DNA sequence: CGCTGCGTTGACTTTTGTCAAGATTGGTGG
DNA sequence: CCACCAATCTTGACAAAAGTCAACGCAGCG
């Protein structure tokens, strides 16, 4: 049985030129000439096998990265050897910014699946940005969006209920998948329960139970890494602590 | 009894021209002429009373900010009315970047103490950066450092032991205070236990108990918001899960 | 000098982590 | 094509940690 996700559309939208333009040049007008100039800079579609490392702590800032195919995680390993997941990076999302502050990478980027990565040499990028104001704007905006994702992550992590964190995680994934032109309501998780747990600051068993609970409540359907969101509204409620202990999916909180 | 922190040195380093230059122009060579140009752009030392709001969600991106005096917090209020603290911003640390991604602020910035804020109009900043490469570099670097702080925050939040989070919080504060030329080993917290709790994703009682525990263990000395770090090495150990249940400060983990 | 807001501490409850045992899944090689 | 293996996921029982509720202490302020 082969992967049944409808990839046709998504695959098209992720051709490299579409990708580079799609994320760096969205609203602003960058003409064809400029585009060509940018395209020339981008080192295209470097392949990386699942589990492969793109960069590690201490590596000098060389490039920023966008996967055109496949997803990544960025992790740090604490003194005690615990792995903390700082972020998941879906196709089309810029990452590698962790080296911009100090000139060196602070974490390790690992492919969650076989992947193709577009590499954007940082020096070239800033060089071009200097005499291409619209690109400078876009670069800043994209960096800002990356910071927004970090803030979302922090916001999730400050929730004290495991159920809320898990629901928010799924909801966030749904939004991001939709944004990159994929189905947000039915998808394959690129990461393991353990990785989700390390991203959410929970034990992996707690994540597993959380998924089961949402399934029992009729909010989602899970088979391993395959997830379908059945009731987005209920998911939203679960994410807002609207727990209510009940098993009925559609029942609103009795109080109120 | 008046505030006994030795502020002389720190106060000097935070004069506005020193501030603007100190953080935007650190290593790169920016000549006096360029400096003057920058200085002209920075709107200086706007005063804000404790509890005052600098911007709120939905506000258009106008400026980036640096406090020359006083500290800030950035918060989001969740659907249920819970306040989550996304960051604390010490004097000399750039904030306000949460609007760069979307053009609108996503959180609220509130003064923790009476404060003086330097305002850096964003449009002007990028304008100047476009024909001043060294400033562009610095701007990116400073933005990167801000992202680094967010990553540190995430890293703290993914720890599952409250004691570790609290120790890491104090250690991070120590480092940041030192970096801005203040005493890292004896300081006054600008925020309440409740705010620390909302930053760390804990109950305020847990934070209070964590402080008491560190004090009992001889690691720190606390009187309300006044903190003295007695044993940095023990603090580091506490931050790395080196808990050992014991009460003796210097005793290493018995195993090992 | 008594408020009032913050911080601390204790007793108890709830949630989550831990340990351990199965169940599934996916991949590999016979 | 099937069987087996390893990795991953799920579930249960129990222990530990953190949250909640509540009372008290303390300091700064009017």
Automatic annotation (TrEMBL), chains A, B:
Major localization class: cytoplasm
Keyword vocabulary terms for this entry: Activator, Allosteric enzyme, c-di-GMP, DNA-binding, Repressor, Transcription, Transcription regulation, Virulence
Protein name in the entry: CRP-like protein Clp
Domain Cyclic nucleotide-binding: 26-110
SUPFAM superfamilies, per the entry: cAMP-binding domain-like (SSF51206), Winged helix' DNA-binding domain (SSF46785)
Subcellular location: Cytoplasm
Subunit structure: Homodimer.
Domain called HTH crp-type: residue spans: 160-233
GO cellular component terms listed in the entry, alphabetical order: cytosol
């Amino acid at each position: 049985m082969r992967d049944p996700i409808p990839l046709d559309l998504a695959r098209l939208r992720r051709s490299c030129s579409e990708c580079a333009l799609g994320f760096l040049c969205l609203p602003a007008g960058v003409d064809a000439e400029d585009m060509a100039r940018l395209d020339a800079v981008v080192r295209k579609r470097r392949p990386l096998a699942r589990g492969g490392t793109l960069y590690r702590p201490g590596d000098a800032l060389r490039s920023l990265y966008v996967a055109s195919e496949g997803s990544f995680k960025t992790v740090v390993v604490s003194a005690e050897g615990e792995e903390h997941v700082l972020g998941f990076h879906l196709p089309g999302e810029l990452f590698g910014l962790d080296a911009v502050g100090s000139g060196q990478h602070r974490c390790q980027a690992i492919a969650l699946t076989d992947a193709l990565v577009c590499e954007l040499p940082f020096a070239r990028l800033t060089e071009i940005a200097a005499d291409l104001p619209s690109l400078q704007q876009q670069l800043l905006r994209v960096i800002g969006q990356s910071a927004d994702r970090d803030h979302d992550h922090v916001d999730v992590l400050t929730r004290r209920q495991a159920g809320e964190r898990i629901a928010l995680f799924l909801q966030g994934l749904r939004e991001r998948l939709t944004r990159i032109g994929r189905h947000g309501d039915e998808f394959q998780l690129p990461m393991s329960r353990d990785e989700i747990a390390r991203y959410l600051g929970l034990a992996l068993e707690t994540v597993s139970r959380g998924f089961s609970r949402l399934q029992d409540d009729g909010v989602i359907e899970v088979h391993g890494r395959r997830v379908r969101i059945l009731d987005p509204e209920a998911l939203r409620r679960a994410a807002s602590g609207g727990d209510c202990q009940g098993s009925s999916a559609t029942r609103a909180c009795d109080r109120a």
